[in-house]
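Per reviewer request, we include the raw input and output of the structure prediction for the construct analysed in the revised manuscript.
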Amino acid sequence: MKKSSFFIVVLLGFILAGCGGGDSSSSNFSSSKVPTIPTTYTPNDGRLLASQCAQCHGTNGYSVSSWDSIAGEGDLIEEFREYPLSHIMGAQAQGYSDSEVALMQDYLSTLSDGSSKDESEEKDDENEEDDD
């Protein structure tokens, strides 16, 4: 019985040592890495409504699966309404008014669709070419 208790104590010691043992001096966070909490927030109704889309179409409308990416889309109202109720998008469309779909469209149209580089990437590419 005493051998098993000793084994458990030793095992817990190794586990706690691997976790830092609760000693505040071995914390994984330094004061310089503490995130800054925003002091202001501007609500965006389109972003809130479009958050439902991320389940299939990916975070910020950029899909990494077989679903279409919708980032950068500008014609959601027409697309939303063309699906029959038997289709998942037709069923989803029933839950939104045209004004809500317009808010989502406005938000998604501001997102990069991933097909073009931003200006900083283009400048980096130009600088690499100049070095050759």
